[in-house]
Predict the structure.
Amino acid sequence: MTAPTTSTRPTVAVPPATAAGPARPVRRRRDRVAVIVLHVVLVVGLLVMVGPFLWMALSSFKPEAEIWRVPATWWPERFTLANYRELFGRLDFPTYFFNSALVATLVTVGNLVFCSAVGYALTKLRFPGRRALFGLVLSSVMVPSMVTFVPLFVLIANLGLTNTYAALVLPFLAGALGAFLMRQFMFSIPDELIESARVDGAGELRIFVRIVLPLCRPALAALGILTFLANWNSFIWPLVVATTEDKYTLPVALALYSVGQNQTKFGLLLAGSVVVVLPVVVVFIVLQRHFVRGIATTGLK
Amino acid sequence: MTAVAPDAGTRGGRLGPRLRRAVVGWGFALPFTALFVVFLAGPVLASLLMSFTDLRSADVRNPFAVNVVGLDNYLRLFDDELFVRAAVNTALFVLLGVPLTMVAGLAAALGLNSGLTRLRGMFRVGYYLPVVTSIVAVAVVWRFLLQPDSGLVNSVLRLVGLDGPNWLGRTDLALPSLIVMAAWRNLGYQMVIFLAGLQAIPQHLYEAARIDGATRWQQFRYVTLPSLRPTLLFVGVIATIGYLQFFEEPLVMTRGGPLNSTLSVSYHIYNQFGFGNYGYASAMSYVLFVAIVGLSILWFRLLRSGEEVSR
């Protein structure tokens, strides 16, 4: 990939040209067939993509016997909240929920601060080592997570941080993806704007906080959402460093329950899955415009 | 950080301009860089060093007192039947999974970009949904959907008179099932990237093609595909990097079974880590690293040649 210097603002979408030219009757009928076929395919696809979640949500309100019935039912015949009551009453799901929210929030805030600061340095400040730093960040994208896994574990153990919130948060505070995203976005902020602020006597910190950050709101929103979701769902590292129940995150707890003796209580697992999935689905649907923009920004030059 | 005090001005500082620029620049870059070095770059280097030692979990408190064993850990890989098995499974996962996901993602993007549907936003949200949901929750649901008797998938097959197999219980079907599930989970991400790529193609190219009498297929083959080359490259590289590391799917769906038929390289590394063989696990992770870099270069070779032409 060459250094991305083009504007990262979402390109104004050209209204998709309708395939038909001047509406001739034959053409129009063919297009109507195409529209119908396309929608049938897209709707079937949608069922395949969303169906499992729909079934999960509906079944979490069924009593255990109905979940296992053959043939499977969609709508609960007898609606019950027993699964959720057990989840939040007998099991410690409120704690897991809190841990997940805390870890994801801390990591997100850290990335917003550190990545935007380094993005500013990489785009608007000239200092020795700048190119090397960017090269380092960019090349790390290809490092498989398993490469750092063992040394990280040794490091955390030697710092005496095993089974602490710090162990869950520290390794993810400064992500390469975030630095990359912020750098790319900040290229679209005109240098003249910053130059004129400097001429007016503003220091770099003030320029960064007062001028650059407000302009970066779309990128910050995208980075914030992406980071939060990734860490809300994060699973393998917490599984290894969180060793007692009071530090479990939601995915860890769900994974451990799903292989333990609770496997027979499938309704409980479904309700747990809903608790894991529902917040991200809500966040995603409400903020999906930022989301798509963020993905497109990281994905395109 | 006194040098970056807001009122320091451009000329008023006592430091020379060059030194001052360095201090200000690193003032902004240092917090990120320090965390990045300690928790990513440092461990990458440490892992390489560990791979030449016989570090085990018992040595954790004293990692510098281990023996250097040279390339032993790397040579051991060839005799490790489980590693070979895992490498084959991982290769299959990439070879089948990457094209499948890319075709599905591109097809979805083309469907939504055709201008024939007003429900684009709704479809986009729906198709993207699996990407944002936790793999653990997905596994809970899919394990149930793929149940031999009461599972939804086999229930649907029964409607059309087919007898569905035990998808995750058979050695020949477990890996393909996971591949399809991975494609299902990741195609939404690719769709969004492809959509952005499709919208960046200038409309006049299509107009010119239509004037020349190109059919829809010809427009796709000679306008869309060549223009999408940079996007295909990006999506291909990202998917390959991701799939080479596949691990969470078998961990939560099959525990690597049945009979190691879904054991992946990352999963094997994780197991060796669990057994306390840290040096060996590090060596394996570096083999994976090299494979990722190698395949990424291959993608660039494959698609870059035409990139200049398409711009």
User: Anything to note?
Assistant: Chain A has 15 helices and no strands.
